[in-house]
Design brief:
The complex is a heterotrimer of chains A (about 270), B (about 260) and C (about 475). Chain B is built from 7 helices and 12 strands. Chain B has about 260 residues and is an alpha/beta fold. The chains are: A alpha/beta (about 270), B alpha/beta (about 260), C alpha/beta (about 475). Chains in contact: A-C, B-C.
Chain lengths: ~270, ~260, ~475
């Protein structure tokens, strides 16, 4: 992490395309959390998408195009030390920038591109990772009523190795009862374009997760990626389940004590 | 299409070499490939004096649904062997096809001089048991006789305490069938042949440069760890599929 | 409803998802397996073991030609006949030649995915040679006339009720729900076969180059029978299944398997049992192609099945949905398209994954399976074999997204359209036009937010009179 003299750490928010268009409140909550816990947040306007959906589907030239734009937006800020880090409320997008950009810029890329990709990747963090590991947050003062469980999104868990951090933040919540989720580590079935190309398998996996959620008795399932959240809520609602999926930023930013009974936490407008 | 056999060998090796960027067709010196595991691959450990190792071996075997007993002196082994066989006889199910007449009970066995217990065969004969030592199991009569026995008896080349395994090398007077065909198998395990781990045993062999020649001479070596089992059906465990269902080790201090 | 392995992919998946019996069987098996594997992994220094296992396998592949030559040399010195086969046909022909020369009529086989891969049984049967599978699971599916659905536990897709019914039908034995009864039946039936077979055929878990040894790992004892009872023994080994030296390992939740059989040659003079003749067939059948195509890591596989056991996709669809292949699950999705240059499989199997990476974490030799799947997907795109509509859509997306202005415009457009479809400001979308109806068939979709984050931030900047963002 680049060091800037004195002052609070300054981070650029990488809001991600799904949060931007579907769940802007999650982005706002992320900003609030960062600011409340000691960071200054800037938002580079020109950002769009990291290119993950194209990369996952095998379209590397297309993904590279999008990745180059991403680097054009964020690399100067890192290189010139105008920010200390890039923070995103998404495990899979961070995994893309931190790990998979290396593959994208391995082939058919200049040394310069490669260098920039590595530099940016090393400075990109997932939200809870940054809060706990860098800002040193231990407890977040938020109150939630009801039974809560946690679903570790696959890229967050297995690519970034981020798991203890969100769990620690959840453990510190007032009022919430944390319950075990059977098969917590199992993929929910989103998988990017997989959700469309293999919709039936994707649905079967999601329904299994929904059954496990019902068995856990949880009112809310918390996670760090809105992609998984959209898929799960899509199934939970269509099947008439009570449980709802909510993004961790929203949950941790909740200062009042109203749980899911009063307001649909997924209505993140 | 008729492609000579030698072509297949050549083509395969050439394709591999082209992809791997290999160093020519002559194989390197044997020493170049000494990459045996730097880290022991066994999943448990064992150490201690011979008594301790014996108990560790037995306990492991028991966890796998085998059984064992430790005997102080070599001279006590024959009696213990008889007792074990008698116990098995009394347990036998009524549907068994073997004769219930224990006075003609035959034990499929390694040759007497492969069993490290002097006088064993005579002792057994005194109780009406005879050792069947097959000479050629491809011969129909020999095969039929071997297949009708209900107990097999062997020694072991080595016993591995960390996993409860034994090493059985085939050879003259050391049929594979004795530890395979009958539904029950008794192993005579001298304490001097118990090693802590697989690696320890391997090391002892290499030290004498013997592994390759052991494999060559014996044509087949098996590591046997407990009774035969299967979990193919819903992953539920069952014992005694094709190999023995009951495996019993008589461990004895061969120094005494 | 059962899965027809020859049907098109979409059909197979649909059949699999509707096969309640199979899915129940998988659930029962998975429950057993997870508990045992967790225990086993907790008992060892797994990271170190995996690194070591990887190192050993990498070394073997890097030196494959030399190891193969050493293997051949040592096997031959031990009295074995060594044959090389470039493809399935050559391998089958070699086995048939040996069988023919010795007038073989009865064969007993221990489990070998390689022999499934080359469809050996059918070739033997066509030559009027009787083949009996002796691995319990393989024996059962042979009776059922089905292919195996898992590389380690071939009947994981069958409940005990299914097996009982099958044995009742084929062998006339009484029904049972006790696995011990089933095993007793198999033991009785197969004991007869072991004792009268002319030839035993096995696969090879590892070939040891240093000593010229074929290693087989079994729990049932059929591996020992097959390699010891008949006069002839033929082992088939993939050219990648080599190690320089003997090493022990564990993968199935046990410390070690019950029988670890090392065969180095035919019986020696004076030996009471063992084969008079031992043959080893070294088979390529696409493995050198895997190297040529740049998928070297896939050759590290030791066929342990760990990846299959943790795969959430396999859990839903089982092994037969992967098609007419010996290999299913994550490793199957990688090697099936590559071994046989299977274009259809290449377009389907690598995409049958959410890339969750559970397989990579489970693999004892740390194969980066998700990476291989990503590479295969990229290959499909490179070869212009992906669906046209998809290519166009992705292109449109990437061109939109690389220009911020276009991106924001497109986002506004999408918002407008979806809100129209939803029929209200904050309503969710229950129906989308194809191809997006793949989502809405089973899931609702949220409508776009009234104001995107970008727009909200702009407002906030103006309101707070913050300096413009950099």
């Amino acid at each position: 992490m680049a060091e800037r003299p004195g002052s609070r750490p300054r981070v650029a928010l990488f809001v991600t395309c799904m949060v931007d268009t579907l769940y802007p409140r999650v982005g706002m909550a992320a900003v609030d959390l960062l600011e409340r816990h000691g960071a200054d947040v800037v938002f580079p306007h020109e950002q769009t998408c990291c290119g993950q959906p194209a990369f996952n589907a095998g379209y590397r030239a297309d993904a590279r195009r999008m990745a180059r734009h991403f680097l054009a937006v964020f690399w100067p800020l890192i290189d010139q030390r105008r920010i200390d880090a890039i923070v995103a409320p998404s495990g899979s997008c961070v995994a893309m920038v931190r790990h998979f950009y290396r593959i994208l810029f391995d082939e058919a890329a200049s040394d310069e591109d490669r260098r920039r990709a590595l530099q940016v990747g090393a400075a990109t963090y997932e939200l809870t990772e940054y809060l706990v590991d860098v800002l040193g947050v231990e407890v977040i003062d938020a109150q939630v009523k009801g039974k809560l469980t946690y679903h570790p999104c696959c890229h967050l868990l297995r690519e970034l190795g981020v798991d203890a951090q969100p769990r620690r933040l959840l453990a510190g919540l007032r009022g919430a009862e944390l319950v075990e989720l059977p098969g917590a580590d199992e993929c929910c079935g989103f998988g990017g374009l997989f959700a469309l190309k293999n919709a039936e398998i994707s649905t079967a996996m999601g329904r299994r997760k929904a059954r496990n959620l019902a068995a856990s008795g949880a009112d809310l399932v918390v996670m760090n990626d809105v992609s998984c959240m959209t898929h799960l809520n899509g199934i939970l609602k269509r099947q008439g389940h009570r449980c709802r999926a909510v993004h961790i930023a929203e949950l941790l930013n909740r200062v009042d004590e109203h749980g899911s009974a009063d307001r649909d936490p997924t209505n993140a407008r | 299409m008729n492609r000579p056999a030698a072509d297949a060998r050549h083509e395969i090796l050439e394709r591999l070499r082209r992809s791997l960027g290999s160093r020519g067709s002559v194989s390197g010196r044997q020493g170049d490939h000494a990459v045996g595991p730097a880290v022991p691959m066994t999943v448990t450990h064992a150490e201690g004096d011979r008594r301790t190792l014996a108990t560790q071996f037995g306990t492991k075997l028991e966890q796998l649904a085998g059984s064992y007993e430790i005997v102080d002196r070599t001279a006590e082994v024959p009696q213990r062997l008889l007792q074990r066989i008698a116990e098995w006889n009394s347990e036998r199910e009524p549907s068994s096809t073997e004769t219930a007449d224990s006075s003609t009970l035959e034990v499929l066995s390694w040759a007497a001089d492969e069993l490290p217990v002097p006088g064993l065969e005579e002792h057994l004969r005194g109780s009406g048991l005879s050792l069947v030592v097959p000479h050629d199991l491809h011969e129909a009569g020999c095969r039929a006789r071997a297949a009708s026995t209900s107990v097999g008896l062997t020694a072991v080349d080595a016993a591995l305490a960390s996993t409860g395994s034994v090493v059985l090398a085939s050879g003259p007077g050391r049929s594979r069938s004795a530890s395979l065909l009958p539904p029950r198998h008794i192993m005579l395990v001298p304490m001097s042949r118990i090693y802590p781990t697989f690696e320890a045993w391997l090391r002892s062999l290499r030290g004498q440069a013997r592994l390759a020649s052991l494999l060559q001479q014996s044509a087949q070596i098996v590591f046997v760890t407990g009774p035969s089992r299967s979990a193919d059906i819903e992953l539920r465990l069952t014992l005694g599929v094709h190999g023995p269902a009951a495996v019993h080790a008589i461990i004895f201090d061969d120094d005494r | 409803m059962r899965v027809d392995v020859r049907a098109p992919y979409k059909v197979r998946v649909r059949q699999a998802l509707g096969d309640e019996a199979m899915r129940t069987a998988l659930d029962r098996a998975t429950e057993q397996m997870s508990a045992r594997c967790a225990e086993a992994m907790a008992a060892v220094d797994a990271p170190r073991l995996r690194d070591e296992a990887r190192r050993i396998r990498e070394h073997a592949i890097e030196h494959l030609p030399e190891l193969l030559e050493a293997l051949e040399r040592n096997l031959t010195a031990n009295g074995c006949h060594v044959h090389w086969a470039r493809d399935a046909e050559e391998a089958r022909q070699t086995v048939l030649n040996i069988a023919h020369r010795h007038r073989v009529r009865q064969v007993v086989k221990s489990k070998s995915m390689l022999t499934e891969e080359i469809r050996l049984n059918k070739a033997l049967e066509r030559a009027a040679i009787d083949v009996v599978e002796t691995d319990l699971g393989e024996y059962i599916i042979q009776l059922a006339g089905e292919p195996p659905s898992h590389i380690i536990t071939p009947i994981i897709h069958k409940r005990i009720e299914d097996v009982s019914e099958l044995l009742q039908r084929e062998l006339g034995v009484p029904p049972t729900n006790d696995p011990a009864d089933i095993c007793a039946t198999a033991r009785r039936e197969l004991r007869r076969e072991f004792l009268r077979a002319d030839m035993g055929i096995s696969g090879c878990n590892f070939a040891i180059a240093e000593t010229g040894t074929i290693c087989i790992i079994t729990n049932e004892g059929n591996g020992r029978m097959v390699t010891s009872m008949p006069r002839l023994y033929v082992a088939l080994a993939g050219i990648e299944m080599l190690l320089w030296q003997v090493a022990s390992r564990s993968a199935t939740g046990q410390d070690v398997s019950v029988y670890f059989t090392l065969s180095s040659g035919p019986r020696r003079p004076g030996h009471p049992d063992g084969p008079d003749e031992m043959h080893v067939i070294l088979l390529d059948n696409g493995r050198s192609r895997i190297l040529e195509r740049g998928y070297r890591e896939a050759l590290l596989c030791i066929r342990c099945g760990a990846c299959i056991n943790v795969c959430p996709v396999y859990r839903e669809i089982g092994g037969h949905a992967y098609g007419d292949t010996a290999y299913s699950g994550p490793i199957g999705a990688v090697i099936t398209p590559l071994l046989a240059e299977n274009v259809a499989a290449a377009k389907e199997l690598p995409f049958a994954s959410s890339l969750c990476a559970a397989c990579r974490d489970a693999c004892p030799v740390k194969i980066d399976l998700p990476r291989l799947l990503l590479d295969l997907r990229h290959d499909v795109v490179q070869r212009k074999a992906s669906p046209v509509l998809e290519r166009v859509a992705v292109r449109a997306y990437s061109e939109t997204v690389e220009r911020p202005g276009r991106y924001r415009l497109a986002a506004r457009l999408a918002r407008w359209v979806t809100r129209l479809i939803a029929g209200g400001k904050d309503r969710e979308i229950s129906r989308l036009p194809p191809p997006l109806n793949a989502w809405t068939r089973t899931r609702v979709f949220p409508s776009f937010a009234a104001r995107s984050f970008h727009e909200q931030w702009r407002r906030r900047e103006h309101r707070d009179m913050r300096p413009p963002t950099e």
